Amino acid sequence: MKIDTDLPRPVREIEHFEIPMPDGTRLAARVWMPENAGDEPVPAILEYIPYRKNDKTLERDHARAPWIAAQGYAYVRLDLRGTGESEGLMTDEYTPLELQDGCDAIAWIADQGWCDGGVGIVGISWGGFNGLQLAALQPPALKAVVTICSTDDRYTDDIHYMGGALLCDHLSWASVMFGINTLPPDPVHVGERWRAMWHQRLDDSGLWLDEWLRHQTRDAFWKHGSVCEDIGAIEVPVYAVSGWADGYCRAVFRLVETLKSPAKGIVGPWSHKYPHLGEPGPAIDWLTEETRWWDHWLKGRDTGIMDEDPLRLFLQDHAEPRSHYAQRAGHWITEPAWPSPNIERRTFALGTDGRLGGDAAPDDRLHIASPLWVGSHAGKWCSYAKRGDQPGDQRREDAGSLVFETQPLAEDVHIAGDATITLTFQVDRPVAQVAARLMDVAPDGAATRVSYGVLNLTHRDSHETPEALVPGETYTAEVEMKHVAQSFRAGHRIRLGLSNCYFPIIWPAPEPVTLTLIPAECALTLPVRTGDATAPDRFDPPRAAEPLPVDYHIEPHSGWSVTEDRDTGRVVVEAFDHEGAARITPHDLFHSADVRERYSVLPYDPLSAEGQVVWVHEMSRGDWSVKTVTDTTLTCDRDSFHIAARLQAWEGETLVRDLDWTRTIPRHLV
Q: Which of 199, 211, 258, 469 has the highest local Cβ count within 10 Å?
């Protein structure tokens, strides 16, 4: 990455100031702006998230915000109510109060002497979500949005459910927020209030997993904040960004297709990252691209950005199967619209003999009862570019699946968009699920997963009103795969794998199930790209401002393992991620965070499934120190989910909280 030490304008940073809300609550913010903004006001860019401006995101913010500020903007990093140094409580994500606070903050920022009255909002993940949600509320000063790794639909395309199936990342994500909610404000900024604010968070933030698990269908809880419910409410321009390894790439296509306001989209090979930090690479000079967007919509400059095709995609070339990629080969393509005239939907029948494009007689039947270790090498629903969180060689997953593949391809085939699978099937239990994997098979047999989709078959007709399956009855359902742009080389094969489990991507159905396919009425449809497969690559290598001085005692590191007990057959998937233990030099704050996740299951007993996530956080400065440990376990029986959670918090050597939760939540066709 190029570090720009000579920025076009001198920038000043205000480390901490407070934005008053109408109810008297004060939200903590940090801002970078041109030194002369008080005399020559500039537009403001708001990033509004719960991840603590003073420590957790500061290293990232420090390399990004000053660079944008030097282009003539005030970059405001605002902590949500109840996080960082902001007063109040945060009791869930995207609450009406959070969104009202955001509207009030935008109005306050626009009214400051250093702001010219125009505001843009940017964010990745949480900040991408609430950026869209705030845009739908139409605060007058908001002029444009950049939304990264987010979604317009909180039920179908978020970290909670996929295809109506419960994602194990639901547990993982709830545990992330469980840990963050235990952290105190920094006494340097809030003084002696810090302890009372901290204790309020420890006692009253709640166990979010409990609430989320009580909403297993697409009900009003998930419709709130899903801007697809009224996409026309967004009237400002939107630039949507994601990556193929991210969990949120599908939303980019929907936003470009459905928004009535000006829209652009870009999807790279990246995981859940800003594109200038994009991994797998190539990362791009995103800060220049983002500034072109802001200059056009907040300064009225003709940067040419709206003269370009609205959708830019990284067309990935073949890659050997690995659980982590630093780089992906490929090149950029553009589409003039979505749906694109360059895409032709091509259908492949499922042959009884295992061929894609093969034959099947009307009476033929294929059966699958996958062992529950299918999915143990699937990686994460949402990759964070951690070692192990992408899928490995799919041959081991194929051993427990029905597999269909083409003959070696006579020529290169390029796809861009969403593959779909139409299945006509029967089952022998009232609740069943299916996972579909699209793979690129090299001549040596190595199988790289290209995309996948899952469906809770009780949701075959509706995510709002699922219906139990009647054993022996025949149904038809469509499984949607994640969008992707991928090249299959001549001589390679395209493979489809089907299983009726995919743990720990999704939680297993409550009983062992045999899925019976009627192959004569099943088909795979691929979005084959017939247009020109090249486009100018106008992106330079990434650049950023000077990094934050940080002294790492323990460097960030991560890893995964998959083990099998040869006696019981129990498979255990374990992942750890140490975010690093470091002292932030400018304000002498030490912080450390690490997590361990463990998922296990017996191969033919879905009720043996277990998930556990443990977070350890530490913070200190001089004689002041705090430590918190959160431990959450999810298990099940045939009728219910069971949560056991514990929170421990220390001030210095004194244990100040030791809290336990146990919850039982009925399963609803999940």
A: 469
